[in-house]
Amino acid sequence: MKKVLPLLITMLCLIQWGYAQKNKITLVIHGGAGTILKKYMTPQQEKAYHSKLEEALKKGHNVLKKGGTSLDAVVTAIKILENSPLFNAGKGAVFTNQGTNELDASIMEGKTLNAGAVSSVTIVKNPITAALAVMKNSPHVMLTGKGAETFATQQGLAIVKPKYFYTKRRYEQLKRVQKNAVKGKSGSVEDLIDLNKKLGTVGAVALDQYGNIAAGTSTGGMTNKKWGRVGDTPIIGAATYANNRTCGVSATGHGEYFMRVVVAHNISALMEYKGWSVQKAAKEVVMKKLKKMGGSGGIIALDHDGNYTMTFNSAGMYRGVATPDGKVKTYIYR
Questions:
Q1: How far apart are CA 281 and CA 311, in angstroms?
Q2: Against a cut of 0.70, is the pTM above it?
Q3: Chain-centroid distance, C-alpha 118
Q4: How far apart are CA 223 and CA 123, in angstroms?
Q5: Which of 129, 218, 276, 301 could cross-link 105 (Cys pair, CB 3.0–4.6 Å)?
Q6: CA dist., res. 217 & res. 203, Å (int)
Q7: Between the CA of residue 91 and those of 31, 170, 312, what are the distances in Å?
Q8: 190 pLDDT band (50/70/90 cuts)?
Q9: Which element (helix H / strand E) includes 216?
Q10: What is the C-alpha to C-alpha distance for residues 213 and 145, in angstroms, rounded to an integer?
Q11: How many whole angstroms separate alpha carbon 67 and alpha carbon 39?
């Protein structure tokens, strides 16, 4: 009996811990930040964005509810956003100066600090799956261009022809931006967002019942980008970071600033070194450090206790959360 009792106590403690962790499963997502104002949105557009965010949250959270990992939930949610022409990622990717679509993505696991990323891919239907494959099945962290595409093909990922990413809306946007650039004009509000701030990126952060955090980010980059430009999205520590000891972060905004501030890791570091909450750390980085440099955008972050924040210094950010009880909330404006 003396030997059995400690074993029973240990089992009860594990069961209690598991139950407590299951009550913390959370998924937070974003679909880009910027000059998103109600006066520029029709009721139909609002409904479409809310609907797609809700779909991503419900399906991603369902993965967690069924015992799936945070990595699986992040990939599930991001794939839904990549497959929608509403966001600047996957199917809705913006066009480069050369009239092509070049996509970036990254993912990170908080338990192991393993990470994977791809940049400038043109034929991978869901770049987030390629980032995951790089993390799991290669000795590298980032693959780019043709190399990344060859790897993705060998991994058996969904491959499409470049024309798959064509959308009339994004192509016409490129032409307006180029035309207005010649005239020295900024163009429409939407053009200005994509031309100057590289917004529209999508991302997700999840906490599973095993206490593990994962974060991922995916984008089509900046409208009219030149010279093989790569932003913050595939850079681990800039747009994506996850550490079970602190938090998971996915960012969206003007990449050139996010890289220099190392936004995602900076938030984690403040939590680790100063003991700050995820909300306080995010506010310090996004509302002070980033803003002081002139950077615009925002982040979603989630800590190991299920506390989350959706912090941004722009007018709006497509975002949402699925809490442990399965309730889904989505937002667009401040």
A1: 10
A2: yes
A3: 14
A4: 18
A5: 218
A6: 4
A7: 13, 10, 25
A8: very low
A9: strand 213-219
A10: 28
A11: 42
Tokens 């006066």 locate to 39
Tokens of 280: 């306080």
Print the SS3 string covering 72-119: HHHHHHHHHHHCCCCCCCHHHCCCCCCCCCCEEEEEEECCCCCEEEEE
| 105 vs 115: CA distance, rounded Å | 11
Residue keyed to tokens 């967690």? 64
Kindly state the tokens that stand for 48: 């479409």
How far is 32 from 9, CA to CA, in rounded Å?
47
Are 215 and 250 within 8 A, CB to CB?
yes
The SS3 assignment for 62 reads helix
DSSP one-letter code for 324: T
Mean pLDDT of the chain: 91
Residue 189 token pair: 């509000």
Q: What is the pLDDT of residues 213-226, one digit of tens each?
A: 999 999 999 999 99
So which residues are the catalytic ones?
201
CA distance 130 to 157: 7
Span 283-293, pLDDT tens digits: 999 999 999 99
Residue 115's DSSP bridge partners are: 108
What are 249's two structure tokens? Answer: 């972060």
In tens, the pLDDT along 72-117 reads 999 999 999 999 999 999 999 999 999 999 999 999 999 999 999 9
